[in-house]
Amino acid sequence: MSPSVSAPPPAPGLVPPASAIATIGTNRTTGLLAALVTVLIWTSFIVIARASTDPARGALLLPLDMGMARVCGAFAVLAPWGWWLTRRDRAAGRVDGHAFGGLSPLPFRMTVLTGFFGGALYATFAYSGFAFAPAAHGSVLLPGGLPLWTSLLAVLVLGERLHRERLIGLVLIVGGGLLVGGASLLHALDGSGVWRGDLLFMGASMCWSVYSVLVRRHSLDAVRATIAITVFAFCTYVPIYGLLVLAQLVPSHLGQAGWQFVLFQMVYQGVGTVAISGITFTTMIRYYGPVRSTMITALVPGLSALAAALLLGEALPWNVLAGLALVSAGILFGVRQKR
Q: Which pLDDT value is given to residue 57?
């Protein structure tokens, strides 16, 4: 489950200078706005993905079709922006650090690393997980697993230390996540194959955590990092997916769905969940750091459960309410600065 802070990226001709973009995430208001937009988009992503891929609700696209719409929609918006940035850099004498024909504004190695984990692999794991496991599992394991993976990676890679408040926050968040999805996760190994989806969700969460730590370690600009992962995903996911469909190794409903529905998914999955939330999430990391950022996104499991109850008519049992309370308390501890 990842963005101007409250609006889609401006047209290439209206992009602010690099010095202005680089200041994103350096003030409190921008950090708070980035966190709010990220949480709202990630929450709606869970609900829309569930409604769109559930056959009982008349879903028209398969999970891998959704990934295709996500990548193509994001590429249509961000590739021209990346091309403009690289041309401007070259005009200013900065000729190093461009990859994939000048569409990615980051160096080749960094484009591959961030794009592999934060783009192609994350989309493949996340959408494939919905083919095996209910969305309730995704609500818990996609955003809810981020604090654990990111904390571990931040300690190992960044050398960060987890003070007492943050450790308490992690415990509360984990407890809240278990309460929200524990009832369904108990049946993950009942022979229905749900465990495959759970593993895919956990893999997607780990991939996004790796991307988060890479952004922090290399101080990547929010816009350039989001463009880079989109370019890499398009250059890898699209041809591989196309070959698999042509060889009839994977099914596809893209040709059967109406163009309006496909266009909606391209706009929402590509522009919304990639372009907008991708930039706001990266901005949030620059301000809060990877550990506190993923603690903030731990709000998503509880909020997505509430949204599913209101919009999809799903039940809202006591464990969801209690889990949301624990997650909220964990965030209050986790985002506190060490004294």
A: 67
